[in-house]
Amino acid sequence: MRTKNLTSLIVLTFNNFEYNKLCIDSILQNTSLVKTPFEIIIVDNASTDGTREYLQGLEKSGQIRVIQNEENLGYPKAINQGVAIAKGEYLCLLNNDIVLSEEWLEKMLRCIKSDSKLAAVGPYTSYSSGRQAAQGYTFKDIDSLNKFSSKFNGEEKYVDFLVFFNCLIKRSVWDEIGGLSEEYGMGNFEDAEFCWRALEKGYKLKVCNCYIYHFGGLSFGYKKDAQKQRAYVSLLAKNQKIFLKRIGQYKTISLCMIVADSEKPQTLKRCLDSVAEWVDYINIVFNYKRFPKWTAKEDYDRRIFPKKFKKVLYDLPCDFKTKYLEWTDFSEMRNESLDMAKSDYIIWLDADDFLTTAQGLRDMILRFPDIDYFQCQVNSYKENRNREVIKQNRLFKNKKEYRFRNSVHEDVSFSMMEVEAKKLTTNITINHLGNLNFKDVLRKNKRNMKLILKDMSSPDVHSLTYFGYVNCLLLTQKKENFLKAIKCIDESFKKFNFTHEDPLNSKMWVIRGGAALMYWKVTKQHASLMGAKQSFLKAWDEWKHPEAVIGLSEIYSIEGEWDKVISVLTEFYDLDEIKTGNIPIDLEEIILKTLQYLGDAWGRKAIDADKPKKEECLKKAEEYYSKYLTLRENNILIADRMCQILRNTGRLDDAAFLSIKLVNRFPNYYIGYSNLGAYEISYNRFHTARLFLKEALRINPKHKDARHNLKMIENVLKGKRK
Description:
alpha/beta, Spore Coat Polysaccharide Biosynthesis Protein SpsA, Chain A, Serine Threonine Protein Phosphatase 5, Tetratricopeptide repeat, globular
């Protein structure tokens, strides 16, 4: 028997006593029986931390009804148990790690009643996937949550999925769909299937203008436990496959890789661990340069992959196939791995990649079945921990016409563009760690140079081959190769007749400027500096290329044109949008360089300025150095310049405090010890000053300021000076 206008609140608990109590307290405090009649049903999945006894006490008081399970039955089955005894016209499923805000149920009921086609509605919250996440609040107590939620104004929007941490559902729709599938075991993706079924039947889903707090992750306990986190990821991957198979949308995915037999097993393991649970097959082409001789039958495994990778491969949770082939070039090896794939889709990775958003692979395939290939964001990390970002076609349909080209810097996109394949740029993220060691970068550059020279002699040479060759030349850091790079770039302009929209056009002008600037640093030939300026100006004036503005600022700094530095960088810093195209670029480094050059320019202007203007210049320099240190606090050069500004503006205590932080972080920062010594002298604390100055000289015996100040102190302490 259903009770009209009654809402059944169904809460699932499993340990986490304090959070259970907080959740129930927030229900009782912030839900009105008069305005929104409700009942509370708690399903406990065999808690062992006092939760059961607490719930029994509440049940005796008549405030709730409780179902006590003797084992953990998982989320879907336990929720179905609660719904089975519910009397409400509406069902509200609640996690035990949420805190409800004032009038939350009134807002959700108002929303679900606004459209007869709505099956379910959900609130905004602090921790959620999908489109329900809203930042800006950290939980303190229920009163502060109520204050924040009363001012919260979120857009009410129709969506294709609601997360069931707090979801209000019409009982009639629940019964029509048949509740939650219990095939998902402990839980995850049962909410995705329910939403899919609702949409399939013509119903709608909506996020309403209501905010509640969600701690998140407590039920599975994975936030602070690495082992539980791995188990949770495995559960997600398994249940995603169950979901897709149940709704008839399952597509198989193959991971295709090429791996040198010299690669470290732990490097390959890191890559495979990030993706293996999310794919169906793994195909690896191992490469050798000197193939060992085989004699014994028991060495069969070693014929198809190097023996050292045996444990890594046999621990995989999915099927794998391998080949062990003599190395030729990157594209040929990549295409060998593609030929091994029998799946619907392919994703390719390097051994030194790892995938950070693996769940997104099947999400994208499900949501966009007409898309042929998906561009992923690849973060290539460098030795200084900065990263270059590029979009690459890493996930695509398995089609024979999709083939890699180029001996090195291999690319599959040409073949896709030729058949006018449909693309989608995604937020699937891959981190590439192959360039962290600069010695390895130089070693790979020698190998790449040989391969790319072969492509350069081909009649079908591509503009990207020229781009790769120029980068190889510049990495050698040889004077003659700087000139070769400039010549090669000029040749590419004539050969390929780049359109204005081609991102390689602006990039080549930037690289041309960089090559000329590097040549000037070696030779000091003025013509080279002017050539660099001309190239950077073209890339900046025509395309507003972010790398061009950094090169231009460096040249203006060399020329002492501080106003020009400030003008061009301020223009760049104020841009609403930075356009880079699909060419590798380190935006983080560009922003840092912008802040550094602006700080330097204002600091240098302060030197020759009169007093009022000097203070203004120093204030601007401090502003930009502060922004820099917010992003990269460990840059000792910028921190030292900040100390100088603080001392020059009379804030000696602030300068000393920053110096203390620096010497603690960088024990060999002798300038910091010297500055602390000078600070102590200003307060006549000579004994402490002497300790700091001696430490500065221990690190750098040639530091003049420390030696001068120490000598002065020694004289004072001997009574020769007052």
